[in-house]
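Revision sheet: C-alpha cells.
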Amino acid sequence: AAPSTLVSKFFLIYHQWNFGNQMPVQLCAITDGTLGLGFKVWNPKVFFKDRMHLMPVVTPAYPAMNSTYNVSHSTLHVMRQEFSRGFEITKNIEAGKATWEELFNPSEIFHMYKKYMMIEAIATTEDDLRKWSGWIESRLRILIAKLEGVEFLQIHPCPTSFPGKRGEEEHGG
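Predicted:
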C-alpha cells in the first residue's frame, strides 16, 4: 500500500479503537510463560496491575509487555483527540481539501486553554539541571494522577522542555 494509505488507515483505526484490556493493540498472539524462562508476560487475566492499563500496546517479542503502561486518563484523552484530528485531516487530504503539511503542523496547545501550570527547573550547572529535570519528570506522572482526581479540572500534559534564558534573567544567573 502507498504510504499515504497507511497513514490514513492508522488514523482511521486508532480513531475508532476501543482501548482497554478487552482489546489491546498487538501485532501477534501473546506467547505465554511456557518457554520456561521465568519472565513476567503481560496478562490482564492473571495480573491485577495489567488490568489497570488504559491503553495497552503489547510488544510482539517475548516477554510480551505493555509499552504504554504510563498512559493516564488525561493522556489517553489527548491521544484520542489527536487520533480524531489526524483522521479528519487525512479524510480531507484524500478529498483534496487539505495537504499533508496540515497533518504535521504542531498542535496549538498554548491557544487551546486559558490557564496553565508550568514547572520551572533552575540549576547552576548543566549537569545539575539535567539531574534536577530528570527528578521532576519522574514525578510528573504522580502529579498528573493527583490532578486528574480534581473534579472539573481538564488536564493536558505537555512534558516538554522549553530551554531559554528566563531563569537566568529573573534569578541573576
